[in-house]
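User: I'm putting together a teaching handout on how sequence relates to shape, and I'd like one worked example. Could you take AAA ATPase domain-containing protein from Candidatus Electrothrix aarhusensis, show the sequence you're using, and then write out its predicted structure as tokens right after it?

Assistant: Happy to. First the sequence, then the structure tokens directly below it.
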Amino acid sequence: MLKLPQYQVIQQIYESSHSIIYRGTRKQDNQPVILKMLKEEYASPEELSRRKQEYEIITGLSHPRIIKAYGIEPYQNTIIMILEDFGGESLQRIMEKQQITVEDFFPLALQLTDSLAYIHATDIIHKDITPDNILVHQDSNQLKITDFCAASRLLYETPSLQSPGRLQGTLAYLSPEQTGRINRRVDCRTDLYSMGVTFYALLAGRLPFQSLDPLELVHAHIAKIPTPLYEVSPDIPRILSDIIMKLLKKNAEERYQSAFGVKADLERCHNDLLKLQSEPTFSFPLAEDDRSGKFQIPQKLYGRKREINTLLQAFERVCQGQAELMVVTGYSGVGKTALISEVHKPMISKHGYFLVGKFDQFQTDTPYNGIATACDTFCRYLLMENEDVLAEWRERIRAALGNHAQILIDIIPRLELIIGPQLIVPKVEATEAKNRFTLFFLKFIESICDKEHPIVLFIDDLQWADLDSLLLLEKIITESKVKYFFIIGSYRDNEVDKQHPLMGLLKKLKKSPAIIHIVELHNLFPKDIEQLLQDSLRGGAGVEDEGERIAHLSKVIYQKTQGNAFFTHQFLQILREKNLLNFNFKQRRWQWDIKQIAAQNITDNAVALLADKINSLPPKSSKLLQLAACIGNIFDFKTLSKCYNSFDAEAFSVLWSAIKEGLVQPLNENYKHLDLVENALFKFSHDRIRQAAYGLLPDDQKNPSICRLVASF
């Protein structure tokens, strides 16, 4: 039993894979407390950091339905958090002991939505709403949310690819976007999905998706539709089932947009049930009062229906055994990457792999850089598989490469973690070395593509590809025997001319038997901008002039941005930051002054607009972003702080302004506490942001060799 000098430990009440929970009292005043201790005798720095962050977040919240934290103390080689004890027990335990009726459900659900609305209003995402993290006092029915160790203080996060066992949160309750496999940001609506799973489990007595296979659970969250609750139990009213099924929508835009909206519909449903007990089949339009006051541009494509169909039809043919090439071209910011990302969901249903590589304008002298990055993604996928699956891939790749595997490991170092150390290959002259690498790279690609696992290889920014990479892609397309392989490339058509090597390659490929598609993306039409605004600025119910107001605004926005998707998003965000778009909580609608917006002296390109935004940051933050731009589109904090020549704490406080503004985004969890920030990894949220930051550098610092020097720190 745990022994602490200042506390009397009464009993152990819970044990998870990470924590042990005790009930006790504080000796000085006999105050009941909960003692939450990390289970590991020697806790990892990551776990210690998460607990410290949890304590910081809880102490910053003040709400009757959120657990209070009294302190955090070291204990041997770990730490203990001291929490309030209001006599509650986890909702999970209550569910295990008794069936939750519809009558029992409403008081709990209304308290949960109320507390979640408060959490989101403080710009915190909980990221682990489950029955285990909801405490209920059964006599008073009081509810409190606990366990904020996975929480985020950012408005949104972009989750990185992780094995299911390493995902933040509880797998059975994770939203599709929280799995990190559908290329969607995580915001407060992820908690609404998890709350929907919790509601489903409360009323059905089981989870919507049940599997012992973690990857199967991930797939279910992304692609499977749960059985509606009214079909699970005839005692559950259809309208209540519909509310919960809306929470479980795969796309965040189709869910409720706020906990306030969920609470409003639950209250209406509860009141109507009490009044109309003899007519349980009543219904009403959902989400009529669903207004969060937060400005959110939907993460979906507008005006791209034809291009999406072309992409998905090509992928379907690839799944039948074809090998195809698709090249997507258009001006920067037009939405090339967003379009290509639409292949994620069907790819997951086919158990395929999505490999992403990107060429860098400052590393054009590094052969195969973009292709190597994509293959590294594949290696990361394999390292997430169980040992049996990994062993199959290991033997397949070894058989294909034989004693020449080191040739690929030299370019793709992570491959060694899969197939183990390999024999050194003899050195040969440069031309023969290229031919040898090409030969065995083709063998490698042929070995990893099959019917059970079609491969999508996406190479971005081909306008910066080195000549060796272009020649390798040509060989893959024209000479390999590969099947079930979909190569997608993208390039900025405004940055290449007829003499560019890429143009020569495409001209040559068009004359070959290979199956090639060229997709040209253009700016959005005015009607697309209008639809985007209708979805972003949802007006109050019954507002007669709402459509007319938005149509007028869309014309002004289009005149300013000419329909460039990225420019449009940035311009709208700046209007919000300047309070030219405001939410009127009394009228429950967005308001704006069209004359003020039309009078904005806005630049005619996104880079200049972003440069102004970067310059509006504190001077130190602006300078730090310029240094980061020299390192690369992806940069690690350790290198950045060395270049900035400061301690981690100072450099991170400077970088935080850019993170909060969404200019850069973290790629792992290490940014959350100073103990781990040295290992934090970040990326610019868009190429144009990096371009804008780089453009602010003095001319004498824009030499690519200087950038390589900075990146090598």
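A couple of points you could highlight for students: The chain is about 45% helix and 15% strand. The chain has five domains: 7-84, 89-275, 305-520, 526-598, 606-711.
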